Amino acid sequence: MKEILQQLEERREKARIGGGAKRIEAQHKKGKLTARERIDLLLDEGSFEEFDMFVEHRCTDFGMENSKIPGDGVVTGWGTINGRVIYVFAKDFTVFGGSLSDTHAQKIMKIQDMALQNRAPVIGLFDAGGARIQEGVAALGGYGEVFYRNVIASGVIPQISLIMGPCAGGDVYSPAMTDFIFMVKDTSYMFVTGPDVVKTVTNETVTAEELGGASIHATKSSIADGAYENDVEALLQMRRFVDFLPASNREDAPVLPSFDNSDRLEYSLDTIIPDNPNMPYDMHELITKIADEGDFFEIQETFAGNIITGFIRLEGRTVGVVANQPMVLAGVLDSDASRKGARFVRFCDCFNIPLVTLVDVPGFLPGTAQEYGGLIKHGAKLLFAYAEATVPKVTVITRKAYGGAYDVMSSKHIRGDMNYAWPTAEIAVMGAKGAVEIIFRAELGDDEKIAARTAEYESRFATPFVAAERGYIDEVIMPHATRKRICRALNMLRNKQAELPWKKHANIPL
Ligand code: HXC
After folding, report:
1. Domain 2-242, CATH number (from 3.40.50.1460, 2.115.10.20, 3.90.226.10, 3.40.50.880)
2. Ligand 1 center to residue 59 CA distance, Å?
3. How many angstroms separate the CA atoms of 274 and 285, rounded?
4. Which of 171, 178, 148 is nearest to 241 (CA)?
5. Separation of 97 CA from ligand 1 center, angstroms?
6. Whose C-alpha lies nearest to ligand 1, atom 47?
7. Whose Cα sits closest to atom 25 in ligand 1?
């Protein structure tokens, strides 16, 4: 008996060293942890239970029958993060570059199926070269099955991808279908085809970083929702992130104990809006002053900074925040900001996370670059996402809410539940200068008349009261009471029931 136990321990030991000491050393030299080290950091200590540790590939082409490594390049199982069940798979780059074989795919599929059946999030740690080339179509079939499961689980359980090494082919397409993608700076890359293939096909010479590093995907392409300095920081941030999310679309996110008073008044907000309407202020300041303990988990922080998206807690409960940022392009809505906001709104709606929208928007960005790039359709995405969202929606207009952007940013008309405005709000078709130049064109050149017209327009429209007189704004509130008012509104809306007419699914302008 003792010998049998010993044999098991030996087999486990062999599986645990994956591709061997040399490859592990190479992994460490690149500043990367191994798959098992990553899982240990991600999950609560001692909570990981591994599945399928002895699975091996069945390929017999290209001499593969002589090269088998238990586990076959992916470590899978479940564990807990702060006590909550999480399913996890981590690609092991030391084994065939983490590439996906038929059996490797089956291990991932098992995790996906269990997570969906048992309604718990899946986190994938990616460090892999895509389909195992020696397996051909069997690997492609495996990816197809993984992709299908990504899609079926979408909107039911949260799916998170953390990119921690060079990833190609299917190892970027599967993450692309998950809810969030985070990357590690300088050691992770995502591309459909790597620099060598790019050189052959298009004759472009690019480095892996230029083609698909975190510096590209977190700022230019918007593929990544965030980027971290190293593996350790990334994994610890995933632990923090998961705490904001529910286990599934049928559960609420965990309510964490808060030591912050929901009645807290922030008098500094009474002076945050500059006297000059063209001067910016930092919307982050408002967000952190509203949030429990000032804690804000930002999504896509370095992309389309003119809109801010992320999670806070109010009275310990998760809330999604969407806010225009006057510090970047005056907070204007362009294609990128609209897409970013829309995707975030849809995530929150999928998972019953209430939305707080902070509005200071001068309108949509004019110009050929935007129009040629499809601004109409991208702007429509945000409008559509807000209108379709049935979660509680609380809106606060701090300053500008001009034109179509007023309608889009969770206005009453697209079923904002509580719409507040600060006394500094300006709700109109456009700013005074532009408006006067159009409706009093004949008087242009007469500076005195134009100044009088501008003053008249400002006193009539550069306020929240025309909208409040019509009930489009439920109440004009004191800036210092914003946290208190939002908390009270969300409490009042906690049992909101809103249903859309039956449909197979809506047809959001993609
Ligand atoms: C089998 C692979 C592999 C793969 C890497 N390896 N990718 N083995 N199939 N796809 C092996 C290497 O042979 C090597 O084995 C080890 O992994 C490490 O790879 P290196 O190339 O030495 O590492 P590095 O220089 O860091 O480059 C990593 C890489 C590169 C950028 C990922 O390996 C690469 O470009 N691989 C191919 C990527 C690719 O084209 N994949 C197919 C995509 S198609 P040893 O034994 O030396 O350690 C696809 C289909 C689905 O995925 C698409 C759906 C839309």
Report:
1. 3.90.226.10
2. 17
3. 14
4. 178
5. 6
6. 96
7. 166
